[in-house]
Amino acid sequence: MLIGELAEKTGATVRMLRYYDQQGLLTPQRTDSRYRVYDESDVERVRSVRCLINSGLNVRLARLVLAHAFDQDVELPEDEAGCVPLLEMLTEELASIDARIEQLTRSKAHLGKLVGDVTRILETKVGTKIVADCQGAARRGADQAEQIEQVEKAG
Question: Which of 34, 59, 117, 137 is the most exposed place for a label (fewest CB within 10 A)?
Answer without folding.
Answer: 34
